[in-house]
Amino acid sequence: MKKSQIKTRIAPSPTGDLHIGTARTALFNYLFTKQNNGKFIVRIEDTDKERSKKEFEDNILEELKWLGLDNDKLYRQSERTDIYKKYIEKLLKEGRAYLSKEESKAKMGKQIEVVRLKNPNKKVEFDDIIRGKIEFDTTELGNFVIAKNINEPLYHLAVVVDDYEMEISHIIRGEDHISNTPRQILIQEALGIDRPKYVHIPLILTQNRSKMSKRDNATSISEYRRKGYVSDALINYMALLGWNPGTNKELFTINELIEEFSIENIQKGGAIFDIEKLNWFNREYIKKISEDEIFKNIKQNLPKDILNMSEYNDKILKKIIPIIKDRISIWSDVLKIAEEGDLDYYFKQPKYKTEGLLWKTDSDLNIVAKNLLKIINFFENISNDKFSSDEIKKIIWDFAEKEGRGSVLWPIRYALSGRNKSPDPFQLAEVLGKKETISRLHNAINKIV
Ligand code: GLU
């Protein structure tokens, strides 16, 4: 077999959406392959007809594409039955396997005939690039079943045949497959074929070191995509789940990863998944995205009741992008902010109780009205094109200092937003513009007098 070229594969079973563990395995395979100018194969392991579904295959391929992990070739085991048959017949002919009539447990005692490998009952030893020598006594495996019948191979046989036929040089897969390796080696030896190199990577674990499950965090890539994670951020974060560059560097483009990734630096112990860290990465990536892209994503995540407001317009949304950007880690946070009521007031006059206009220690609404009137006068004197946060601050600052900052600034902010928490009044006034700002201040005064 010619194995001069690096060839790797991921072999997902289409029994669920693309799992974050499989995506991370795909990434490690991809990085190793690209840095060696190799070929990366995706093999859909759909021999289990009952559990395999086309929709899951579609999801797996779609999400790998979204992550940018393009394959050089795609195979489906269901289309390769004839190939497996050839190898099963060879094993039978050479006496390395045999047909065994037995009662099926699954089929309630019905007689069936399966293909079993003749186990030489020996010690199998293999080198794992991360873990070193691993030894197994295969005796306890017995003469294990390798096919339901000549036309229906089981997992171990299909994997061995495919890895051989596809000339896979390195099998990089989750450590949950370590215990499968001795069986696969016995089949390789029975067939007289070469052994690929093995790299078993640590599993992704939750904070309490249990296996990632849906209960703790989203496990499918589609869920992360729906929540509004950026694909490059996920890639960057996943690369560091079990691998580290040996430096403090955390932000990597895919090309830097291809350059710097090394299989030898993959850790043995489980990789702890930390959603806060992933969110941090996502924020970093959002910061790098162009204004146009950010606008598009934020708009997509606005709730209908804001988009359908008669007062809604793109211009205002564009103005509040920096404010929104400051508060989100993932795109769907936009919806959260909106649901908390922190976005509507940019588009329409807020509703609020008049008393809300009073600063903590104040009790006289008439003073508030008087101050707001004064502020309106200041604002009238700023020209439209100078109505910026800095200018507004400059013009009213002395007055605010004199009258008491809270007593002056709180009512402005409250009259503009109707909220106890919001950006500062200068920023709000700039976003709303001179006309709207003055109109809201008048409204507040009208509520008082
Ligand atoms: N089909 C197996 C799985 O989904 C992977 C087999 C392999 O990587 O050898 O876990």
TrEMBL record:
Sequence motif: 'HIGH' region, positions: 12-22
UniProt record, GO biological process: glutamyl-tRNA aminoacylation
EC number(s) stated in the UniProt entry for this protein: 6.1.1.17
Claim: Lipid metabolism is one of the keywords in the record: no
Molecular function GO labels: ATP binding; glutamate-tRNA ligase activity; tRNA binding; zinc ion binding
Reaction it catalyzes: tRNA(Glu) + L-glutamate + ATP = L-glutamyl-tRNA(Glu) + AMP + diphosphate
Predominant place of localization: cytoplasm
Segments crossing the lipid bilayer: none
Residue positions of motif 'KMSKS' region: 211-215
Domain Glutamyl/glutaminyl-tRNA synthetase class Ib catalytic: start-end pairs: 5-102, 103-280
Protein's UniProt keywords contain Oxidoreductase: no
Family to which this protein belongs: Belongs to the class-I aminoacyl-tRNA synthetase family. Glutamate--tRNA ligase type 1 subfamily.
Name of the protein described by the UniProt record: Glutamate--tRNA ligase
Organism phylogeny: Bacteria, Candidatus Campbelliibacteriota
